[in-house]
Amino acid sequence: MTRRVHLNDLQLLLLAGASQRENGSLIPLPQACALEMPRLSKALASLVRRKLIEQRTVHDDSLTWRVDGDRKVGLFITAAGLAAISAHHAAGQEEAQGSDVQPAPAAHEAEAETQGKSRTSSKIASVITLLEREGGATLEELTGATGWLPHTARAALSGLRKKGHVIARTTLEGTSFYRIVPEAA
Q1: How much of the chain, in percent, has pLDDT values that exceed 90?
Q2: Cβ-contact 181, 168 below 8 angstroms
Q3: Residue 113 vs residues 6, 9, 117, 118: alpha-carbon distances, Å
Q4: Does residue 4 lie within any of the structural domains?
Q5: Does the reported pTM lie above 0.85?
Q6: How many CB atoms lie within 10 A of CB 160?
Q7: Which InterPro entries does this chain map to (predicted)?
Q8: Does the residue 14 lie in any domain?
Q9: Higher pLDDT pick, 119 / 25
C-alpha cells in the first residue's frame, strides 16, 4: 500500500497539472497559481525536497522555470510525485465510501503510457461536450461527469486552454459557468 503524502491545495494543483502533460512538466503553471505567487516558491521547494518533482535542464523556453547561468531549468513531476497524487486520490475515494467518485486521471497517467489514453481521452471528451453546451457547465457538473476532484477539473480546463480552446467563465447568482466559445474569425 502506498503511503499518503500530505499535499496542500497548491501542491495538488501543481502535481495534477503536470500529471496531465505528456512531458510531465509543471511549466506552464496552471492559471490559478498566478494568485498564489507568494506561496509558490515555498510549495515548489517542498515538492523538490520530497522528490515529488525534479529540476532538469531544458532547451525549450516555454518549459523554463529559471535560468542558471547559460542553463535553462525546468520542473518535472517524478514517479514519486505521480504515486503521491494517486495515493491522495485513492485516499479521497476511501473517505467517500459508497460515492460515485472515480480516481482522477493523474492516478492513471503511468498506465496511460502503455495502455493508451482512452480513459482520460473519454473524460476529456465528456468535459468538452459539457463545455460546448449553450449554457456551459459548472465545476460541480464537470466533477460529477468525470469523477475528478475540483482541482483536477480546473487543471483540465487549463489544459484545454493550452490546446487552443477558448473557455469563457461567467458567473450567475454566485455560480461560475465555463463554456467553450468559438474563436473570433
Answers
A1: 18
A2: yes
A3: 26, 26, 7, 11
A4: no
A5: no
A6: 18
A7: DUF3489 (IPR021880)
A8: yes
A9: 25
- The verdict on residue 63 lying in a domain is yes
Grid coordinates standing for 116? 493508451
| Range(s) of the domain holding residue 149 | 9-181
pLDDT category at 116 given cuts 50, 70, 90 is: very low
Three cell numbers written together for 22: 505528456
CA distance 104 to 106: 5
Residue-wise pLDDT for 46-59, tens only, equals: 999 999 999 999 99
Which three three-digit cell numbers place residue 14? 501543481
Percentage of the chain surpassing pLDDT 70?
A: 73
* Count of domains forming the chain: 1
Cα 19 to Cα 99: distance, rounded to the nearest angstrom: 24
CATH number at residue 99: 1.10.10
